[in-house]
Fold:
Amino acid sequence: MSETLGVLNLRRNNLSGTISDKFRGKCGLQTLSLNSNQLDGKLPMSLANCTNLEVLDIGNNHIEDIFPCYLRNISRLRVLVLRSNSFQGSIGCNGTNVTWPMLQILDLASNNFTGQFPRKSFSTWKAMMANEDKVMSEFNHLQFKYLGFGQFYYQDVITVTTKGLEWELVRILTLFTSIDVSCNKLDGPIPEELAAFKSLYSLNLSHNALSGQIPPSLGNLTQLESLDLSSNNLTGEIPMQAEDLTFLEVLNLSFNKLVGRIPQGKQFATFSENSYEGNRGLCGDYLNKKCAAATGPRSPLPTFEETHLNPVIVIDWNVVSAELGFVFGLGIVIGPLMFWKRWRIWYYKHVDDILFSIFPQLYLGKEYYQRRAKRNKERRHY
Structure:
């Protein structure tokens, strides 16, 4: 553990026992990878002396410890992988000290973490908050330069789980950001503070005990490509702001208690029904279950006391005005026919002329009735 040792990569071996607690005060480690071994015990406290550490990967071992807050002074830490161990307790650290402002990959999946999310710690993870322009301006790979007289670099390698698959990153881009805290015992709501991580590519909060609604502010994560919130106790509707996640390739909201219509954005048309299964209250065009027509609650019928004993009667003028208009218009036509002889004669004459112009064959009938009326008049005369 000399000052010149920059990379210690012992991943994928069969090492057992504990990690030696002998990291010196001038530790020069930049990468420590012990993934996929049989190590147990606790993380050594002396690891805090490695202030140049950028990659710490001890996933897939048998480490039993709490969240390593004693490493918070390692300000250059970018990758922290504690996956598939036996860590317990809460996530995050108390106090006002800065915690990992350059952190870009956090993998705490498959442990025994409990409690709620560390809202205060979120505010210190500045690298996940950078906008796209800033990230692209600092585009690079995590690497360790050795043999100072030449351009030789060691490329860090880690395994991440995103989009439902395991990926081995042989080159860790500084713009790749990911949070995976799946398969723990976290509870409480999804914090609104996550919306500040505008450069986040992958977010996995599945298989916990999270409750409450999906924050609409998650629509601010416009760079997100994978979102997994499955197997929790989330309630309410899928926020319409989720339609803003135009880069989203994988979405899993299955096995929650979500209700309502699935958003109609084009992005949601690319996801299968498996993304929503286990939510009996969901409906929409992307499921076999259609949504019922939106109807407001029917007002109850008035009781006898309300209609007969209540001195104040509420009149629905929309209905009354329609009926009054019909009666008034009918009266304008029928009234003169009943009480004004000249109007009646003029009306029938013009109606007959209109009918005869449409049906000329009726005109012969008109002459017949005129002659018949003349004969009857003459008979009465004699």
The chain has two domains: 7-283, 322-381. The chain has six helices and 23 strands.
